[in-house]
Write a structure and sequence with these properties.
77% of the residues lie in helices and 0% in strands. The chain has 228 residues and is mainly α. Helix 6 runs antiparallel to helix 7. It is flat and about 55 Å long. The two termini are 29 Å apart.
Length: 228
């Protein structure tokens, strides 16, 4: 672990990742839309006693609030819910940036982030599903939303099973994808259509389950991986 800097260094605070090269090159929402405001938060707290884990808790609080607001079920609530979800993501980026800039990264902090992020995901999706149901009174879409949430967490479970099987130790590799997703969530919420992001999540989760299943079955053909 390197020594902490006395001044905030944006480049040092960024994590080097190899996942999602297409997004990093052509749709870099994380670096150019989420990280700049996150860096302002880090600069504001850099010389204070505020810790990365406290920023993680702030991100979690904004996500829970977003879910509650979405459940209001009207256009103003959708706009505010999407805005709070985006703010949550900005704080979620800021915690890691602060940790790296001040050499305060820890295994617990990484897993705290993962732990609370999954609860936050559920809160936002459940809130949006409840809010749109109140708005539309569509039981068909409510069932669709429940299936979507289930598929989302199924593909996450398959991802973590794969990580355990291959004994991989990579955290935070999905920042580009998550940031782009939340920017889209913000835009469709401001447009008054939070149901569109649930449709998008369904497509992502459905394809994710299929891809992860195929990839895992293919690992059984690799003697080196299968022997681990």
């Amino acid at each position: 672990m390197s020594a902490p800097d006395t001044e905030f260094d944006f480049e040092k605070s960024m994590k080097r990742v190899s996942s999602y090269p297409f997004l990093q090159r052509f749709l870099p929402a994380d670096r150019f839309l989420v990280r700049p405001p996150a860096s302002l938060i880090v600069k504001a707290v850099f010389k204070t006693g505020i810790t990365p884990n406290q920023l993680t808790l702030c991100s979690f609080g904004f996500a829970l609030l977003a879910g509650l607001v979405y459940a209001g079920g009207s256009f103003p609530f959708f706009v505010l819910g999407g805005t709070l979800a985006l703010i949550s993501t900005i704080f979620d980026a800021a915690d890691g940036m602060l940790a790296r800039a001040k050499a305060q990264t820890s295994r617990y902090g990484a897993y705290l982030d993962l732990f609370l992020d999954r609860i936050a995901d559920f809160a936002v999706m459940a809130g949006a599903a409840a809010g749109y149901f109140r708005h539309s009174r569509s039981y068909a879409f409510l069932v669709f939303s429940l299936v979507t949430i289930g598929l989302y967490f199924l593909q996450l479970a398959l991802y973590y099973i794969n990580v355990l099987y291959t004994r991989a130790e990579r955290n935070g590799e999905g920042a580009e994808a998550k940031s782009l997703a939340v920017v889209v969530i913000f835009l469709v919420s401001v447009a008054g259509h939070p149901e569109l992001f649930l449709v998008g999540i369904f497509g992502m989760a459905f394809s994710g389950v299929f891809i992860k299943l195929v990839r895992f079955l293919r690992k059984g053909r690799d003697p080196e991986v299968a022997a681990r």
